[in-house]
Amino acid sequence: MQPEDLVRDHTVYSCVMGSRAFGPATEDSDTDRRGVFLAPTALFWRFEKPPTHVDGPLPEQFSWELERFCALALRANPTALECLHSPLVEYADDTGRELLALREAFLSRRVYETFTGYALGQRRRLEASLRGRGVPRWKHAMHLLRLLASARDLLRTGRLTLDVGDGRDRLLSVGRGEVPWPVVESWMTRLAAQTEEAAARSPLPEEPDRRRVEDFLHRVRHASACGAARPGPA
Q: According to DSSP H, which parts of the chain are helical?
């Protein structure tokens, strides 16, 4: 079985991500697709295991195997968590709908470290771009601001919302390079401080509900194994 076949034949959940899910998309924006596939349990009985992720087969498409995706989401990986909360779901079978129903089980105060850690790395790259090119990469700055605001609101409310809502026009002006860098830098600093303050009093639990997620993974693996073990028609 080829990696692309796993995506085509065994996807349990797929959605649109990027600017189209977050809100600040334009006519020229790409359509980024992310998904989760369930590799048949029998494939794990071989020496060569199924891939943990697959690029394609569509342009701008990336998918994770279910176990890898759950492991990332339990560690509060920003991309995995945002994938589960995309407002643009393209496909979900019974397993995918059960995965979506588990969204809250993955959320914890760990998001403070992962979201802000990722944001800090991106900010350093922006500053390096500013030193090397004289200007930052404005679209990267726009997405960094969106991420920080999303992390702040998640820690404040316990809910992850991707759509930027009323902030769309202001973010787009940053993406077009219309806002001076010192203003953008001050905005980032303010959002980082608000995120730190929100983390101290967040309604989110200290740790995700790992047992609940593991029970789900065990059930779907078991169901896949039982299906593979059934004899075919005579």
A: 3-10, 19-22, 66-74, 78-84, 94-101, 103-106, 110-133, 138-157, 168-175, 181-200, 210-229
What is this structure's pTM?
Answer: 0.87
Q: Does residue 224 contact residue 99 with C-beta atoms inside 8 Å?
A: no
What number is the average pLDDT over the span 93-117?
95
pLDDT digits (tens, 9 = 90+) for 137-181: 998 999 999 999 999 999 999 999 888 888 888 999 998 999 999
* Cβ count near 158 (within 10 Å): 13
Query: For residue 76, what are its two tokens?
Result: 């509060």
Q: For residues 77 and 218, give the distance between their C-alpha atoms in angstroms, rounded to a whole number.
A: 21
Joined together, the tokens standing for residue 193 give 């401080």
Burial of 186 (0-12, 13-18, 19+ CB in 10 A): exposed
By C-alpha distance, which of 112, 114, 83 is closest to 100?
83
CA distances (Å), 127 to each of 118, 124, 188, in order? Answer: 14, 5, 12
